[in-house]
DNA sequence: CTGAAAGCGCTTACAG
DNA sequence: CTGAAAGCGCTTACAG
């Protein structure tokens, strides 16, 4: 007794409504549905209407994987940042998101946690999404990351800082010059014992660049140079307040403090107030970023304003420009910064 | 004269290294490479080594689209929030990201900008990624969104607030009770003319719920009830300061103000200080969220601490639990809140 | 303007 | 443990 068996091959099949279902209902070929959806003008009004009816009747949702696989093009743009707990990157991401979304692209967030090995793995994974382009914070990468990105060959923007050798495009500002500018300001104001406070400067190397700029300014003015007063915690107002107290105890001769960022500096300012330390009479305090709250403290904080959201917007626009094939200006854009002198110095 | 033409069909082809390339180099079938990568134990050590060599020699990166299409399973988890300019959602996202990433899932960020129509479109688009599950902030949705989500049938967590009828799972806290708790606190402290300040309460309906809770507490205490003092701007410290001044001018009889969130309340506190308005002697100030900085102002701010990052973590864990098929406790989790009484009231 | 065929790069379901 | 075949749901490249 032989039994005839039909080879019934079953596949995962999501059970979702497909193009084919829509096509059947509309009485057209699947490709026509595809056209009606992707290039409505290339289809007659009558068919377009039938397709639209079928799409909404069936609740059709395009399968992004099938589309991207078939066309070898995706609207994914990975955005790789070192941290999400820093307001700065959030604002950059906001700028990016706004621009990308309008153009129908999806940002895919990657968080390296200031770890270049993690970055490398992230990049490898994210390239599997055949992204139309990428945005990466920072210009320091593992060699392997660099190789991957170069080999990938699609548009890439490195953001936040400026570098001599971008892999492709570059949008940011010079943190060394920002630090130098603040240093010159403090010197001009007459401060003579100037210190820098920051955390994890090996990882947050842009903060280290600001320190370097400050140091150059101090050297140029013939003033005492000091290593940074470094702590080992994530920046926060609380940490800034503690750092202020610790530093003034360790080096009471200081008459001005440049904090690595406004989170720290605002915290220092609030702490000074609680402790009765008069700013700037006892010690001047300065920050970096230009967070909104820095203008509202008593005294308001002298800081350097960086155009964070704008960095995101410009980077996204440059990327889209290249993706869509039209030239988009120079490969390297210095967005600059602005020294905001307020009463804390 | 007839010419024979080979039908040379060309396709987009990304030019990237594929499984097939790896298989050829390793001298095995593509499916073996797939196995060596996805289930290493199912392949002999020798072949595994050959495959690994080929993968790294060629720099192979898995094509996520092909994989997801073939297996009808993706490791994408859309996370839909109403805003990115609010620190609260950032912290929630951080919690989610941490948990998802460890498990090898990718969050895909959607921003509704407090617009339920946008939300609906976003959900439709994001479902095209065949997500393994979804996380959505809020329990108010357009009917169409609800239909899409119900129809999709995969695990879903609605977060931030608690509702009687979650579509699937629910992780959050009761904003009405939070408002009520603050109201009772202010009443107990002896304040008698208590106002609520917030913006865009139609959209930010969770803030409106806190107002409602406050109003209930005032009613229960037999105190004067007032409509909220509403402005039309995004919450920020600057806006909070302005709202303080405007409200005290409009209603000088007020002796306590409950702000919709800490961004506003901290701004009000800083502004009061600059203007010489003594808190809480002239007017008490309270907030909601428990942002770090609220503890550092002078006076420090009385507020309600919500476990933001925890909401994200719990939501992500519950989702993964369901995705991976093991039960994961109750469908509804009240993460609670904590009244933090400080010197501003 | 419309369609039949082939293919994108994987994984599933069988088979041995 | 390993592999040949089929299929996931789209779009490209032709053809008419």
Automatic annotation (TrEMBL), chains A, B:
HTH lacI-type domain: from which residue to which, for each copy? 17-71
State if Ligase is listed as a keyword.
no
Gene3D superfamilies, per this entry?
A: 3.40.50.2300, lambda repressor-like DNA-binding domains
Q: Which PANTHER family match?
A: LACI-RELATED TRANSCRIPTIONAL REPRESSOR, TRANSCRIPTIONAL REGULATOR
Organism, per UniProt?
A: Lichenicoccus roseus
Q: Which GO terms describe its molecular function?
A: DNA-binding transcription factor activity; transcription cis-regulatory region binding
Name the Pfam families for this protein: LacI, Peripla_BP_3
Q: By its UniProt entry, which SMART domains does this protein fall under?
A: HTH_LACI
Q: What is this protein called?
A: LacI family DNA-binding transcriptional regulator
Q: Which InterPro entries match?
A: HTH_LacI, LacI/GalR-like_sensor, Lambda_DNA-bd_dom_sf, Peripla_BP_I
User: CDD domains attached here?
Assistant: HTH_LacI (cd01392), PBP1_GntR (cd01575)
The alphabetical list of record keywords is:
DNA-binding, Transcription, Transcription regulation
């Amino acid at each position: 007794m032989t039994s005839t068996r039909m080879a019934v091959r079953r596949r995962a099949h999501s059970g979702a409504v497909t193009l084919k279902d829509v096509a059947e209902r509309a009485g057209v070929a699947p490709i026509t549905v595809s056209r009606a959806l992707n290039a409505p003008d290339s289809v007659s009004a009558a068919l377009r209407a039938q397709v639209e009816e079928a799409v909404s009747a069936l609740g059709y949702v395009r399968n992004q994987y099938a589309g991207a696989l078939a066309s070898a093009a995706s609207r994914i743009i990975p955005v790789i940042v070192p941290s999400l707990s820093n307001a700065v990157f959030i604002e950059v991401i906001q700028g990016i998101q706004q621009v990308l979304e309008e153009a129908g692209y999806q940002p895919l967030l990657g968080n390296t946690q200031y770890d270049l090995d993690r970055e490398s793995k992230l990049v490898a994974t994210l390239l599997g999404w055949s992204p139309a382009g990428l945005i990466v914070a920072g210009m320091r990468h593992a060699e392997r990351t660099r190789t991957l990105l170069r080999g990938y060959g699609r548009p890439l923007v490195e953001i936040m800082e400026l570098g001599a050798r971008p892999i492709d495009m570059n949008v940011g500002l010079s943190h060394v010059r920002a630090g130098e500018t603040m240093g010159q300001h403090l010197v001009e104001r007459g401060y003579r014992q100037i210190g820098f406070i920051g955390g994890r400067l090996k990882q947050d190397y842009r903060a280290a660049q600001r320190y370097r700029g400050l140091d150059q300014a101090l050297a140029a003015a013939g003033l005492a140079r000091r290593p940074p007063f470094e702590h080992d915690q994530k920046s926060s107002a609380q940490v800034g307040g503690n750092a202020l107290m610790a530093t003034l105890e360790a080096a009471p001769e200081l008459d001005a403090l440049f904090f690595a960022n406004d989170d720290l500096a605002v915290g220092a300012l609030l702490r000074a107030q609680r402790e009765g330390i008069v700013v700037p009479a006892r010690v001047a305090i300065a920050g970096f970023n230009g967070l909104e709250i820095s203008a509202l403290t008593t005294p308001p904080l002298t800081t350097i304003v960086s155009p964070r959201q704008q960095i995101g917007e410009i980077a996204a626009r440059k990327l889209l420009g290249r993706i869509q094939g039209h030239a988009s200006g120079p490969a390297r854009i210095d967005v600059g910064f602005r020294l905001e002198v307020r009463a804390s110095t």
